[in-house]
Amino acid sequence: xxxxxxxxxxxxxxxxxxxxxxxxxxxxxxxxxxxxxxxxxxxxxxxxxxxxxxxxxxxxxxxxxxxxxxxxxxxxxxxxxxxxxxxxxxxxxxxxxxxxxxxxxxxxxxxxxxxxxxxxxxxxxxxxxxxxxxxxxxxxxxxxxxxxxxxxxxxxxxxxxxxxxxxxxxxxxxxxxxxxxxxxxxxxxxxxxxxxxxxxxxxxxxxxxxxxxxxxxxxxxxxxxxxxxxxxxxxxxxxxxxxxxxxxxxxxxxxxxxxxxxxxxxxxxxxxxxxxxxxxxxxxxxxxxxxxxxxxxxxxxxxxxxxxxxxxxxxxxxxxxxxxxxxxxxxxxxxxxxxxxxxxxxxxxxxxxxxxxxxxxxxxxxxxxxxxxxxxxxxxxxxxxxxxxxxxxxxxxxxxxxxxxxxxxxxxxxxxxxxxxxxxxxxxxxxxxxxxxxxxxxxxxxxxxxxxxxxxxxxxxxxxxxxxxxxxxxxxxxxxxxxxxxxxxxxxxxxxxxxxxxxxxxxxxxxxxxxxxxxxxxxxxxxxxxxxxxxxxxxxxxxxxxxxxxxxxxxxxxxxxxxxxxxxxxxxxxxxxxxxxxxxxxxxxxxxxxxxxxxxxxxxxxxxxxxxxxxxxxxxxxxxxxxxxxxxxxxxxxxxxxxxxxxxxxxxxxxxxxxxxxx
Length: 663
Fold this sequence. Notes:
It is a single chain. By secondary structure, the chain is α+β, with helices and mostly antiparallel strands. It has a domain at about 235-285 and about 305-325: Monooxygenase (Up-down Bundle). It contains 14 helices and 38 strands. Strands 1-2-4-5 form a 4-stranded mixed beta sheet, with no helix packed on it. The longest helix has 17 residues, at about 305-320. It is elongated and about 130 Å long.
């Protein structure tokens, strides 16, 4: 097919324009036959290939050459790209040549039917310029053929690199690909590749895999991980024998056991094993499970693991103490504006003694006053309770034994010649200490005075009794250890330089707190002083001892936690949230320390870390006369005796409940 070409020359560039008279587009890829040797172009040379009659009118491709180029494509570079060049006199089969040219030019065909020539700065082509053959491009609707190099990505990348300024961007070239490969329709070469892979040795396969991974892109490596990782995931817990599986699970924390139970049915069966949770309860110090079982069965007839139910209940209660909103307390008003001097709390019964000469029995559940015990002729300053039996000591120099159910006075114990200031109940015997400097041992069933212990030189302020030995502290700076059966003083523990106000006794160690700011730890068998605990700045007003851990409250507004075996101070409960006045009372267990103060607050501390958790009570009158005199607590409830000495706070009991809410 003939083609007409027109040429226009300008001083700054050379252009050759090719047009085709027929609907079939003809691309003219022809350079000048000759170039004047040594001729330098003043500007870039540009070849314009286009179509003025075809289906895509006006599309052009401009091939620029930099200043100094001869406007032609170099033979060497064309050969690298697979272009076929021929001398003018070269002969060959027209059909074969046409087919070869079609294959080569297809690699550089653009979407508008034009073709882009590679360029080079090689000066060799300037010496021997060669003409390039014309070829026909059959274009339908101005778009390239659907089979535009579907598999040859190398040619595509090479073509993209060779695109020069002024040409149509290759991003606009839409490559039509074959059907997406799948297991049912794999690439043709894959079977050969897999066959070759299977023939290799293990070392060769590993090397091939290494090379393959290095070649892959990140998205392909992630795909490998998604395929490979499940191959190494095994539910070994379900595959193990039950005994071994439970042994493995026993190393998990309770929180992790609860999460494991949500994994699958088999894990849930194992994670709710009763013996497994019994061990967790033992580690958490939960020894009693009967109450938890009873409460659980009231809501759920079948209990899979009673020990788990006990643990979960304990955890919920701890969270109630620590972080959950504090429920409004029950307010128990009584004793008018008098001081509550002593407080006892056991089960659901609260007993308060006051300097108004009475004791009151309250229900911790309903907050109602069940009984008012009237009979003393002086203020009540000490009390003890066991079951339904209450013992009280008064400034009227007597002790009284009461029945809490009926409110009747069972016995009045006469013998002391001054105020009964302290007492301690053990079994059916109670030991009382008086300002008359003596101690008396009583049988509460018969009301008989069994023994009188004489030896102190001043008022007895505190006493402890374990059923075998009696330990007493007095204002004579002495601590004495007694054998009550023989009415014999076994040891006089000397060392304090001021009044002894508080005592603790666990059967092995005696711990005494004094106005001299020191706390002393003694061996009860030998009477030797093991440690002198220094750190407080004032009177140690109250102490609690459990499992060799001592917590002491002081009038210096601080609380300290000690190890009485080593004599080391483990924690000091102070800091920006400490009490602002003297500590009046304290209680503690394995998790918390609860302290009350003259500043009108009750604070909760972490016994292990010494960290302040939060205020449980904060009186509005705190700091202006409101006082928390006494506190008593059990696992779920806290009872506070509050009031004031100047009338700013009404005398009352506050009962805070931290139990699991029943639905």
